[in-house]
Amino acid sequence: xxxxxxxxxxxxxxxxxCMSVACDSEHSxxxxxxxxxxxxxxxxRRRKVMSKCISGSSQFNRSLISSFYGSSIQSLMSSCIxxxxxxxxxxxxxxxxxxxxxxxxxxLLFGSKNGTINRRQRRMNRATHSGEAxxxxxxxxxxxxxxxxxxxxxxxxxxxxxxxxxPLGHDLDVFYNNLLEGVSGISEIETxxxxxxxxxxxGEIKSFSTDxxxxxxxxxxxxxxxxxxxxxxALRISYRKMNPFCVPFATTNMGSAILAMDLGWMGPNYSxxxxxxxxxxxxxxxxxxxxxxxxxxxxxGGSDAAIIPIGLGGFVACRALSQRNSDPTKASRPWxxxxxxxxxxxxxxxxxxxxxxxxxxRGANIYAEFLGGSFSCDAYxxxxxxxxxxxxxxxxxxxxxQSGVSREDVNYINAHATSTPAGDLKxxxxxxxxxxxxxxxxxxxxxxxxxxxxxxAGGVEAxxxxxxxxxxxxxxxxxxxxxxxxxxxxxxVGAKKERLDIKAAxxxxxxxxxxxxxxLFAPYK
Length: 525
What we know:
The protein is an alpha+beta fold and 525 residues long. The chain has helices at 9-29, 42-53, 58-70, 73-80, 87-90, 95-98, 107-110, 119-138, 172-180, 225-235, 246-250, 254-263, 278-291, 309-317, 356-361, 390-403, 421-435, 447-450, 457-471; strands at 157-165, 187-188, 201-202, 297-304, 347-355, 368-377, 410-414, 442-444, 473-474, 498-499, 504-511, 515-522. It has an 8-stranded mixed β-sheet with strand order 4-5-1-6-12-11-7-8. A two-stranded antiparallel sheet has the order 2-3. A two-stranded antiparallel sheet has the order 9-10. The longest helix has 21 residues, at 9-29. It starts with 8 loop residues before the first helix and ends with a strand. It is an enzyme of class 2 (transferase). One of its GO terms (biological process) is fatty acid biosynthetic process. InterPro entries: Beta-ketoacyl_synthase, Ketoacyl_synth_AS, Ketoacyl_synth_C, Ketoacyl_synth_N, PKS_Beta-ketoAc_synthase_dom, Thiolase-like. Its EC number is 2.3.1.41. It comes from Quillaja saponaria.
């Protein structure tokens, strides 16, 4: 087991929790241990206490774990990660043999055997042993079932409204018809001079009017970046030139807040920001409010507009963007062997979710039923996917179990697929792991035509998923000219739209920080 598994806030908290349970008795037996000289640093005293407390017998270590699992902390931990001592623990002589805290106890937390460990060593440990480190946390994933739930009187959630603002149009039908025809919304950036940038293309909103619109959308990954950027430019002259509303308008919650003020909605109202997974988090949480009876109607989705100098420059700096400037419409190419990064996009996608009986009572047009979904975290790297796709697989399996949908029933997936070398392949492998035996499965990526809309991606792609259910047509994957060596195109939609009688549809969104989200829709019956 990798010692790097300790190097996280969770494990630091775990150590503190264990110490609070286990060291009281040690304190009573040997109070002098905790009364070190003032000249000794706090960290040195803590190291001394730790080494003393973990040097006991196997009986001590077993009692430490049992007291941890017998306390109220258990419920908190089980709600965050599925964690349980494995079989190796029960046949071991203590925590160190489990490997969770390293070969010599808490060696990584306090340094290596010679007292130091550098950043490169930690990264090598993580890369070498990350799969092993995840094994303890993910072991119970084997127990996740995808059996259909028994019938209950749970409140059902349906989709009764859709809205988009995208590089392919702001009208729902125009947007989806352009997708079906394989039209690309990627072009050269026009909003500012980016001649000095290595990337000069994006999926921009070319024209948009707020006439007849509320003008406010829900979640956001980047917040009011444009407002904040303008404020910084104004500050170069004087603080007196700054917009007095620059701070509140820069926060991610203000969209939902202003929407409530505009409509007078006094129900649940807040913002979620989980990078590129933002919209799916908002949609699933909105549905849960309806299921719990806290609301009958919820607007949910996401919005982002980061195609400005600081936004473009930031993604260029982390080397995430395509540089196919000479051929913008060919730049976003999920699963193609010549993909060289994602293309920034901007826009918004919003769904109106409603409790079924409430929708029927008012005679609403029901587009689809929302079945459920789930979240997980890779707990691995800030931008890179987990090497074995463990987090994505866990997320999908939990989503199926929560929704009561069998693997065989999912025959359409709107993938996250951003056109990045690592991300596309890892998601594809996870999808095959979960649905590889489903011969009817069709997979596509909306990002091949509109780019990556960041926090709005999940919202727009959820709209595309519902539109596929409504129309019976799934849009093509454009620019997939030379599939990656590890990709079997049999499950991918081709260069033309395809007819599909959708039983259940899955939409994935993953975000920086390892945030994974999967939500499911089906025709309303």
